[in-house]
Amino acid sequence: MSSKTVEQKKVSKAELKFRDAFERLKQGKPDILPKGTPLSQNNVAKEAGVAPSALRRARFPELVAEIQEWIEAHKDEKTTKSPRQMMLAQRSRNRDLKEKYSSLEEQRDKALSQLLDAQACILELTLENQRLRAQLPSSKITHLSDRNNLS
Question: Per-residue pLDDT tens for 107-135?
Answer without folding.
Answer: 999 999 999 999 999 999 999 999 999 99
